[in-house]
Design brief:
N(4)-(Beta-N-acetylglucosaminyl)-L-asparaginase, single chain, 165 residues, N4-(beta-N-acetylglucosaminyl)-L-asparaginase activity, Peptidase_T2, signal, Ntn_hydrolases_N, 2 domains, 3-stranded mixed sheet
Length: 165
């Protein structure tokens, strides 16, 4: 139950909804997608992450890349302390992160769970989707994969997360 309560459901919804709406078609011309990025929370971190996703979408037209950019922004900014490093520690006192990305039109997904000592969970999940035959890698295997892909290994703990434990 504790693992479920710490999962950032709203962010997952934000990622899913933003990707779904970005795929929507206009009523005027069914060949032109309507670009949109949605967030469900109004705090500064989520708004900034949404802006970053929107800029990426406008610049590149890459919907999945925009979702990764937005989620990565939240991981970097620790949106409401439920996303990214410095979050609630696990039973052993270590902060871990997770991410799941889905590409509906191409029927692909990539995910990491219990990722340790790597801050960029969304980018690692994207790498799982693009560079492995797997859809989910967890624990030390996820950390090893991330390091092999060039991600930096560093502590996910902050003074706040140490106090939580």
């Amino acid at each position: 139950m504790a693992a479920i309560s710490k999962f950032p459901w709203c962010l997952a919804l934000w990622c899913s909804v933003s990707h779904a709406f970005a795929s929507a078609r206009s009523t005027k011309d069914d060949t032109e997608p309507i670009p949109i990025v949605v967030t469900t929370w109004a705090n500064q971190g989520f708004v900034a992450a949404t802006d970053r996703a929107w800029r990426h979408l406008q610049t590149t037209g890459d919907r999945l890349g925009a979702v990764v950019e937005g989620c990565s922004a939240c991981e970097e900014m620790q949106c409401d302390r439920s996303v990214g490093y410095g979050g609630s520690p696990d039973e052993s006192g270590e902060t871990t992160v997770e991410a799941l990305l889905m590409d509906g039109p191409r029927h692909r997904m990539g995910a990491v769970g219990d990722l340790r000592r790597v801050k960029s969970a969304s980018r690692v999940a994207y790498a799982v989707m693009n560079y492995t035959k797997h859809s989910l890698i967890v624990g030390e295997s996820a950390t090893k994969f991330a390091i092999e892909m060039g991600f930096t290994e560093e502590s996910l703990q902050t003074d706040e997360s140490k106090k939580m434990y």
